[in-house]
Write a structure and sequence with these properties.
The structure is a single chain. Helix 3 crosses helix 5. The chain has one domain: Divalent-metal-dependent TIM barrel enzymes (TIM Barrel), CATH 3.20.20.150. The longest helix has 15 residues. By secondary structure, it is an alpha/beta fold.
């Protein structure tokens, strides 16, 4: 087990600025610190949130104002925004699953740019940058729908589209990011029995070889549970890593834990990013049960990370 939160000294909050465009992903963190202010750029590491952390908050358009409020409350200046916070739902009473899916497809293709510009403004006005747009693309998506999704991400100011899909879908996505000036984020899980899944370093290497516009989003919880080497992966592939979903979990497909109580090398990951000035965004995420409120749990996670970088 790695060092727990009890073993750190008192931390001090830094007010440095953050990353901006796609080109910024490959420039030094210190240069970005002089560019645009971002409240969650801490001592050389850009933090954000994977807002699945707010388990009690239904991910829909009606709750988006509460999402923004909580992000500000937790001191976040960057977010990975799920499409479900932006897209209307069509699965009301009397509507079949296939009908709802067709309505969503048609809505995506026809949605005006101003719809997404207004959403972007909601986040901009509170100092939050949308880093990536999370959409679970599948075989059911048409090419026109995928193009519309990437265009929506671009209007929102995202640098890339990410989702939970495997090698087959990733291969299909090869033509899309270049058309929109974005990257595709490949996200891993811990299911080692699925040959199509991103679950090992080797599977990531296969996916990254599809296109220079593909980048890894290393989920430290899943990679640790699958007995992967997070530090070794980052040392070998950092130039192709856009971000990490930073969470803790036990090895051997073990349970998710609070930060510092599992086997994920969270402290070492953060210091590796800081010391090498890698422009890798650390998106906090947790799935463990807690008796605290989700906002309080995120605060504790963020405090843990700040102390690691003090």
């Amino acid at each position: 087990m790695y060092t727990s939160r009890r073993n750190f000294t008192k931390w001090a909050l830094s007010g440095l600025p953050s990353l901006t465009g796609l080109a910024a992903l490959h420039s030094s963190a210190s240069a970005q610190a002089r560019a645009n202010p971002n409240r969650s750029y801490i001592n050389g590491v850009q933090f954000g949130l994977q807002p699945f952390c707010y388990h009690d908050l239904v991910m829909n358009t009606q709750n988006r104002p509460e999402l923004v409020r909580r992000l500000v409350q937790n001191g976040m200046g960057m977010v990975e925004l799920h499409a479900t916070w932006c897209e209307p739902r069509f699965d009301g009473g009397g509507v079949s699953a296939s009908e709802a899916r067709e309505k969503l497809r048609n809505w995506r293709i026809a949605a005006p740019a101003d719809y997404y510009r207004n959403i972007k403004r909601e986040f901009d006005d509170t100092g939050i940058t949308i880093f990536t747009y999370y959409v679970n693309i599948s075989d059911a998506d048409t090419d026109a729908e995928i193009d519309a999704t990437f265009e929506a991400a671009k209007i929102l100011g995202a640098k890339g589209c990410i989702g939970s899909y495997g090698l087959q879908i990733a291969h299909r996505l090869v033509p899309f990011p270049a058309r929109h000036g974005l990257f595709v984020g490949l996200h891993n899980h811990d299911n080692l029995s699925d040959p199509d899944a991103f679950n090992t370093e080797q599977s990531f290497e296969k996916g990254l070889a599809f296109s220079p516009d593909f980048k890894a989003t290393l989920d430290t919880r899943h990679f640790t549970a699958a007995n992967g080497d997070c530090l070794g992966f980052l040392e070998r592939h950092h130039e192709r890593v856009s971000g990490v979903h930073l969470g803790d979990r036990r090895k051997n497909n073990g349970r998710s834990t609070p930060f510092g109580e599992g086997d994920a090398p969270i402290i070492q990951i953060l210091r590796l990013i800081r010391d090498n000035q890698w422009p890798i965004v650390a998106l906090l995420e947790f799935e463990h049960g807690t008796l605290r409120t989700e906002v309080e749990e995120v605060r504790l996670m963020f405090d843990y990370c700040k102390r690691a970088l003090a």
